[in-house]
Amino acid sequence: MATSAVSGVNSISCTTSISSISTFNNFRSKNPNLLLGRRSFLLYNWRRRSFYVSNVASDQKQKMKDSSSDEGFTLDVFQPDSTSVLSSIKYHAEFTPSFSPEKFELPKAYYATAESVRDMLIINWNATYDLNEKINAKQAYYLSMEFLQGRALLNAIGNLGLTGPYAEALTKIGYSLEDVARQEPDAALGNGGLGRLASCFLDSMATLNYPAWGYGLRYRYGLFKQLITMDGQEEVAENWLEMGNPWEIVRNDISYPVKFYGKVIEGADGRKEWVGGEDITAVAYDVPIPGYKTKTTINLRLWSTKLAAEAFDLRAFNDGDHAKAYEAQKKAEKICYILYPGDDSLEGKTLRLKQQYTLCSASLQDIIARFERRSGNTVNWDQFPEKVAVQMNDTHPTLCIPEILRVLMDVKGLSWKQAWEITQRTVAYTNHTVLPEALEKWSLTLLRELLPRHVEIIAMIDEELLHTIVAEYGTEDLDLLQEKLNQMRILENVEIPSSVLELLIKFEEGKEQAEEPKVEETQEVEQQEGGKDDTKDEETEALKAETTAEEEETEVKKVEAEDPQAKIARIFGSDPNRQQVVRMANLCVVGGHAVNGVAEIHSEIVKKEVFNEFYELWPEKFQNKTNGVTPRRWLSFCNPELSDIITKWTGSDDWLVNTEKLAELRKFADNEELQSEWRKAKRSNKMKIVSLIKEKTGYVVSPDAMFDVQIKRIHEYKRQLLNIFGIVYRYKKMKEMSPEERKEKFVPRVCVFGGKAFATYVQAKRIVKFITDVGATVNHDPEIGDLLKVVFVPDYNVSVAEVLIPGSELSQHISTAGMEASGTSNMKFAMNGCLLIGTLDGANVEIREEVGEDNFFLFGAQAHEIAGLRKERAEGKFIPDPRFEEVKAFVRTGVFGPYNYEELIGSLEGNEGYGRADYFLVGKDFPDYIECQDKVDEAYRDQKKWTKMSILNTAGSSKFSSDRTIHQYARDIWQIEPVELP
Question: How far does the signal peptide extend, from start to end residue (predicted)?
Fold first, then answer.
């Protein structure tokens, strides 16, 4: 008998005998299709003996039916009540201990609760896996360097429909579900919108019953934990795995070798082999992703890296050279230490590239192994694209293209033609940016050293592309051809392959031969004219002597006339003064069958600007897939008060899986009862923000003020600087007024910022410092009081967003037009009834169309104007608004402290130069921005009007569900069908 006292709970008592083991074996023999482990069965059997037979739960039954039919088995899982939930929590406190047995405090309560939820997920998880394996469904695999999951407990309980039973069970032992859930750290697997989008997609894939998996890396420390000090942002390692992760299961039987460096050799059969170098092992960690009100539970597979024990240099360790002993292991392990390690150094660049290849190599080996296993004894590789769809979330997983080719050609023995066709039909690419810095380029030298075989394969792809371009544009206009090659080549500033070079030289030689008589005739005329010129005065000769450059050019042309090869080399040769790089985005476009942008305006920019040459060549490849967010996490679970109101007024909770139902709120927007309930819910959520701000920063803010929020990655193009300059202008005007004038002129505001600046992004860190300095001054100014507060919430993450978004009233999405691909936080804010102020950028355009122009605060230059405005600036024609100059002068007085902000302000000045000339048009849009903020104040004074606008924002967000987006991916790109458990 095992006994344990749990504080506040009766002792747990359970007997497990050898008969249970034999019963388990008998049970499994009768249920061969049920993937239920021995531990799960013992738990089931223990529960059955301990409480399923009690009079409290006598009506609760778990039925497991075996079927020998082709459809497989049917699994009817009971719906637990609070009694069975409590018993499960007790079980894990006793038998899955992560803490000492004498206490049952909140951290232990969280782990026991999470593990009890995981038990239920595992049943559906295994059944989902088993069904998809059995029917061999085509499956989508979503590769992403980031998955910003957030806390899993409330989301899993909510998706399972067990919030009530778990809340009641925990109350019985003296804890609230909310307090227990707060013990969970956010998984540090992502940073911004890229990772959060990936996580919303996984939720929708599961909810819609699509056979799909996610693949990522299991970062030990994530990006970093952000501290805000007197010096601004400071970074420390995130410790999210310090206490373990109850949601993950390590699959020690699933691991793959990953190679770096080495060399390529060719066998007698002509097949290439990559040998030598540095070998590591990628080990799978699986995380269950449950769908909402469905049994489908899909998989997020994360890779961790290690080295075999024999690689440990025991002799060196015993000799006292401990660093040498651990060297190889540390090299392997550090690949999965940090998300986006700094890449200013060669070591940093190498580590980033190792991360990307590890994700691609391990995932593709796993995907190919699953395809072979499902295929049985006969593997038809031509069917690979019929069973596998690989989606690359931005350019980070680009190396999966040459990796598929490497495996198919070098390992499986396929020809180049067959492997290339299979790869192109399998892979698709989502573009997330128009910023040059995010369109990845890797040094060819580094890539060749680290991944020599992949560089050979990329060169083959580049050569294939060059032949396509030459065939498309011909060789008549060599300048045009050169322009197209410069824009479209994968290998930038690299010598043209000999096969293409020979083609161009051959054409040029034929051209010269055809023109030979004309050349002789021209020479005769030149000789005749030359004779005439000799009779002229000496002025012409002097002029010729002064035009050395022209003579050299003439000489070059003469040489080229005699040697076409020299002409081709001049036009198409590489520049030894420029770096040779691999353009990953171009490789994505060439190597896949579909390219999609993530908002309508972004997709148009992709077609017309970013990849215009490719769009002209392959228009059928390009699509739009406007991003979406899951309404479960981002409305139902994080804002239950508003969700209940929506359910009441729309008549059901169908909107959770069919957000089009939200549009029904439009007909009630003027209803005073709805407006009253709406304001009450918003007030409740604002009180939560008040508590969060007090906890995180120590500042006390008034819930009566407007809550104005900008939370996103700190970047110059997102223009947090425009926001804080607007606040500084507001503060300065307040200081110039009497108390009565201030109250008359300004609506009270709490201006909230959140987001991380990348550790090596100096200008972004200056912006963080400036925001906190402004806050320190404004928040302690007794003259201003509650009229204005400025708060920077440290260490912004999903859990912080889940508090800030429901209580926000105005949200700022003010990026320079044409630079934000989409944005998803704008969708979350609108869905929660928050009004937006923003530019016509990213998804803002579509949100404004859906919520109505009168319910969106618009300002700023438009995307098609940006290039012209920058040119105007470079020409010195820009005249800054006096109010903008006033703000800069005010900052320079030192009112916000002694820190030297000259570099920050200087970035907004001048007409050209790196880090100057206001590239992101803060000064240009500033007057329009502050005038638009006056309209915000005016609208907020009329609370009835504001509430109506808020309701219409929620009603208009019906289009922006990730369910809708995933349906489009499944139909248009992946071509997969839902597979629902019986």
Answer: none
Query: Of the residues 432, 686, 749, 964, which is catalytic?
Result: 432
Where are the alpha helices (H) located in 341-451, listed in sequence order?
346-375, 384-387, 400-406, 416-426, 444-450
pLDDT at position 527 is 46
Q: Which amino acid is at 840?
A: L
Query: Using DSSP, how many helices (H) and how many strands (E) does the chain show?
Result: 40, 26
- Are residues 73 and 65 in contact, defined by beta-carbon separation less than 8 angstroms? yes
CA distances from 652 to 260, 364, 639, 661, 664 (A): 55, 43, 16, 9, 11
Question: Which band of pLDDT confidence, cut at 50, 70 and 90, is reported for residue 546?
Answer: low
Cα distance between residue 980 and residue 124, in whole Å: 11
CB-CB contact of 77 with 41 (8 Å): no
Going 949 to 950 to 952 to 958, the CA torsion angle's sign is positive
Nearest to residue 894, comparing CAs of 905, 883, 908, 884? 905
Residue position matching structure tokens 């060749």: 448
Q: How far apart are the first and last CA of the chain?
A: 39
Note if 712 is an active site residue: yes
Q: How far apart are CA 866 and CA 845, in angstroms?
A: 16
Choice among 713, 742, 888, 964 that is catalytic = 713
Q: Determine which one of 90, 712, 730, 948 is catalytic.
A: 712
Print burial letters for 537-576: b (CB count within 10 Å at least 16), e (below 16).
Answer: eeeeeeeeeeeeeeeeeeeeeeebeeebebbbbebbeeee
Q: Which of 828, 873, 924, 948 is catalytic?
A: 828
Identified catalytic residue from 824, 839, 954, 965: 824
From 696, 718, 848, 964, the catalytic residue: 718
Mean pLDDT score of the chain, rounded to an integer? 89
Give residue 322's pLDDT: 86
d(CA 153, CA 802): 14
**Residue pLDDT, tens place only, 208-238:** 999 999 999 999 999 999 999 999 999 999 9
For each of the domains in the chain, give its residue range(s) and CATH number, in order of start.
631-861+926-960 (3.40.50.2000)
- Residue tagged 């001048």 (tokens): 910
Pinpoint the alpha helices (H) of 598-658: 600-605, 612-617, 631, 640-650
The pLDDT of residue 189: 97
Q: What are the tens digits of pLDDT across the range 388-438?
A: 999 999 999 999 999 999 999 999 999 999 999 999 999 999 999 887 767
Sole residue written with tokens 């580049």: 462
Q: Classify burial at 380, counting beta carbons within 10 Å of its beta carbon; exposed 0-12, middle 13-18, buried 19 or more.
A: exposed
pTM, two decimals, is: 0.89
CA distance to 133, 136, 210, per residue, from 372 (Å): 11, 11, 21
Determine whether 733 is an active site residue. Answer: no
For residue 28, how many C-alpha atoms fall within 13 Å in the half-sphere facing its CB?
13
Q: What is residue 21's predicted lDDT score, i.e. its pLDDT?
A: 38
DSSP 250-294: EEEEEEEEEEES-EEEE-TTS-EEEESSEEEEEEEEEEEEEPTTS
For residues 389 and 318, what is the distance between their CA atoms, to the nearest angstrom?
A: 50
Identify whether 713 is a catalytic site residue.
yes
Q: Which 3-state string (H, E, C) describes 526-537?
A: HHHHHHHHCCCC
Residue of 344, 184, 228 whose CA lies nearest to 756: 228
> Hunting for tokens 């999470």 — which residue is that?
114
C-alpha–C-alpha distance, residues 766 and 140, integer Å: 42
497, 491, 495: which is closest to 581 by C-alpha? 491
Which residues contact residue 532 at a Cβ distance below 8 angstroms, ignoring those fewer than 6 apart?
A: none
Whether the CA torsion 240, 243, 249, 255 is positive or negative: it is positive
CA–centroid distance for 243 within its chain: 26
